[in-house]
Amino acid sequence: MSRTSIVESVRALIEPAVPKPFELVDIEYEKMGSDYVLSVLVDKPGGITVEETADLTDVISPLLDTIEPDPFPDQYMLEVSSPGLERPLKTKESLLQAVGQYINVSLYQAIDKSKVFEGDLTAFDGENLTLTYLDKTRQKTVTIPYKTVAKARLAVKI
């Protein structure tokens, strides 16, 4: 089973089980050193505590044992955590919620000879992102087609 299909299987199972007000932000299945790690990123308005991640681990872990056939080719470690300050923006809904915030966007193809932009997301209409950013000392605005976005995340302004 591919990593993508493992993540999709896990998402389909645990997304309905994550209680409100928590939100499933992302799932990643990656090899780290000699170990595989299933990272489940969960958040809620106002942030999430360590105790809440432990409680959510107690909800999620037994569910993973019910997937038939077992999609995991190797042993893995389950990590339930907060997405942190640089939260990934994986869906159109998460981008809509990020309007007005400082973000980082990586593209599949360059716009104006650049594949990475970091700035204020001023608008998102479901098809195009409008980003205002600083190019050396000049304020610029770029319109980015959503279909060209490889990755987007909240960013910390320095």
UniProtKB/TrEMBL annotation:
Q: What is its main location?
A: cytoplasm
**Gene Ontology BP annotations:** ribosomal small subunit assembly; translation
Gene Ontology CC terms, in alphabetical order: cytosol
Keyword Cytoplasm included in the entry's annotation: yes
Looking at the record, the residues that make up the Ribosome maturation factor RimP N-terminal domain are 13-86
The record's subcellular location field reads: Cytoplasm
What InterPro entries is this protein classified in? Ribosome_maturation_RimP, RimP_C, RimP_C_sf, RimP_N, RimP_N_sf
Top-level division of the source organism's lineage: Bacteria
Q: Does the keyword Cytoplasm apply?
A: yes
Residue ranges of domain Ribosome maturation factor RimP C-terminal in the record: 89-157
Q: Which Gene3D superfamilies match?
A: Ribosome maturation factor RimP, C-terminal domain (2.30.30.180), RimP-like superfamily, N-terminal (3.30.300.70)
Q: Tell me, in a sentence or two, what this protein's role is.
A: Required for maturation of 30S ribosomal subunits.
Which family is this protein grouped under? Belongs to the RimP family.
The record, for PANTHER family, names: RIBOSOME MATURATION FACTOR RIMP
> By what name is this protein known?
Ribosome maturation factor RimP
- Organism of origin is Streptococcus ferus
